[in-house]
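Duplicate of earlier report; Peroxidase input re-posted below.
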Amino acid sequence: MARRQCSTAGVAVTAAVLAVLAVLCSGHPVPGGFVPLQPHFYDHTCPQLQSIVGAIVAKAHAEDPRMAASLLRLHFHDCFVQGCDASVLLDADGSGRFVTEKRSNPNKDSLRGYEVIDEIKAAVEHACPHVVSCADIVAVAARDSVVLTGGPGWEVPLGRRDSLTASLSGSNNLIPAPNDTLPTIIGKFANQGLDVVDLVALSGGHTIGDSRCVSFRQRLYGQNNNGQVDRTLNPAYAAELRGRCPRSGGDQNLFALDPASQFRFDNHYYHNILAMNGLLSSDEILLTQGRETMELVHRFAANQGLFFEQFAKSMVKMGNITPLTGHAGEIRKNCRRVNHF
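Output:
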């Protein structure tokens, strides 16, 4: 969102009202009020933010090419639970008030990138103490991860604050699962204010990253383990996958979501789906279970520029899911715990 333009021309206002307008125009919170997210939120209070995040994300990516996808996924899993509030980063608080989301089915043994966010937070706290939220750091790191792998860039609206709680049940129930039906996934996106176009575009984030054998085994051996390969999965691809994803065991074995360009952000994900080489059921059903999603898969496969444009728009939209602003929540000093613990 562009910086708000404020004018008092032709209006008689009191000094008090002028003071409130000045705060609104600066992007800082009004007591009890909501402040729209905007890219320039930290221009004066922490101008080093973008360069700090960019440098540390680049270093992490150079050391581990999988980290870009992990940081993108971290942002997604954060925003779908309580909004984009860094709740996914919280460890248990020791008081029993909440259980960490890190133990949820979508996150346990698979969500990564916490240490990178910790490193960024430490550097940002050194440069600008108690100014930048963990939620904003996660959002910027996700954008930088996409750019580093060849994807589109976008201005990240900022000004989020950090939650005081986490939701294990929300993480278990609100994040789309690899085996969900298309209507279920559409419903989970709609609950967050995201439409079918956002769904198909954001699914394109699977152009980078990996998935575990346990997440797609049923496509290789049938829902009842009867040995029947999913009819929407290319038999040759299924045979290849079976080599490292056995009927039992090997749950944590990793497979590229897009083996043709595993570490490159492009539109090959959609070509995979058209060839019946979508790794996850939730990928392939975009082609096989809905006309609107099928048409979008074809459009994004045919035009990478269109996909990039829509992906950037949908990421901004996702990043705006019920953020805490103003004086809601807090600015954590340590991303893994609320300040009073």
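The longest strand covers residues 210-212.

Merging into the original ticket.
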